[in-house]
Amino acid sequence: MQRLFFLLLTAGILLTGHSVNAQLRNLPSQVTDSLKARYPAAVSVSWNDKISYFQAGFTIDSEKYQARFKSKGEWISTEKTISQDALPASVKDGLLKSKYADWKVKAVYILYLPGGVKQYHIPVVKSDLQKRNLLFSPEGQLLKDNITL
Q1: pTM for the full model?
Q2: Which of 2, 9, 56, 86 has the most crowded Cβ, counting Cβ within 10 A?
Q3: Do residues 88 and 145 both lie within one domain?
């Protein structure tokens, strides 16, 4: 009887749908300090452990960002969400001249990289099976064309 009770209790706990936020490792203070130093105006900060880096989602002046940091606090990159209309004319022209001109643009991001490098990340989709992540230079050159799920 006790065994049945224990079994039912265990099953009940498992089936209630309690979600557990298991963090793989602790967030190093060097990472949070690096974010604060680089983006002191960041609000609504949330962190994700992506195994090879930590990713912070945050807002500055109503604009959404995602920054990536190595575990020692070294900044990897930052993506800022922008509207398609905010794309430079050269990038719009590059997209229109690419083989993806008739694909649907899902979102548009500015990608900031070390050394002052700026690129434009544009996920596009043609069908459920045809999806790509495009990366353009500020001059409108297609740098990368990666398949995505």
Answers
A1: 0.78
A2: 56
A3: yes
